[in-house]
Write the structure tokens for this entry.
Amino acid sequence: MRKQLMKGNEAIVKSAILAGCRGFYGYPITPASEITEAAALYMPRCGGVFVQAESEVAAINMLYGAAAAGVRAMTASSGPGISLMQEGISYMAGAELPCVIADITRGGPGLGNIGSEQSDYHQVVKGGGHGNYRTLVLAPHSVQEMADLTALAFTLAERYRNPVFLLADGFVGQMMEPVEFPQQAVAAPTPGWAVTGSAETRCNVVNSLHMGVDELEAHVGELEKKYRLAEQREARAEEWQTDDAEIVLVGYGIVGRILKAVTAEARAAGIKVGVLRPITLYPFPTAHFRRLALRARLFVVVEMSNGQLVEDVRLALNGARPVEFVSRTGGNVPSHEDLFRYVQALARQLNPGARAEEECLAHV
């Protein structure tokens, strides 16, 4: 199949339809609006349902209803809209309803601006609503991954009966790249636990309310079993030039691409640098960090926020290696040049003998 040139936001919708999604309920917001627009265009063509809700609160509750009926369904928004959806997301996690939510992040807090940021990490990865729950979170760094990870998101949502987030910064949502889709669409059967109004499903109950204290504790315990299983089986990360890396650069989304360019230049300058790019932000790829810490001397976390991913990196390493942090906010992007100079300075600190040799050669 020939590749198609498109925006990351549009790739999400086409991949969702091929993955069996037949319901989209949303409210447009920059920089995620193209997802809603593409869903309005394509969803009715394949027999699906598109509804532009009156608000993000309405959209997430429509999604609850579709998921309860066994429909593969999704929504999309950005920071302020995701904040409004958090109560409904908590309900869906408590009711064990599978769905996919695309969050194309913008600058925060509050209304912030429409610049690309990664400031939604905490509210998505840590569970922004009330209660004891988690959402699985996938972080693409290319338009091809926007498509591939959307398909994976629907698989994981049904496997664990849980909301799954696709967390992408505005750059990945807005950029255009060639994308290849699978040639065959997925036929999504109605799951046996769903409520469809038939006699066969009359006894099915979809609910997140458990009034007895022991009853609720038992339910939370069952949810925890799912999360522990996902942590064992679903953690994903990309390692790039890490086999002999002394300095490991860590970033997701568009930052991961920048770090690869920095690493290539650093390698050309004789600096042993590599990249560890988390693909699942929950479950977090802790094992990758701990294995690399056996050789690497230093980790550098680069993110377009005030420091959110860095907390999980420090927890994963548990003091095994020092962690440096580079931050840009407000829609600013870490520049290749600044990061390369930063890496050069770190390399000189780690290898003072090499620095002395450089200074000696400079005087010859």
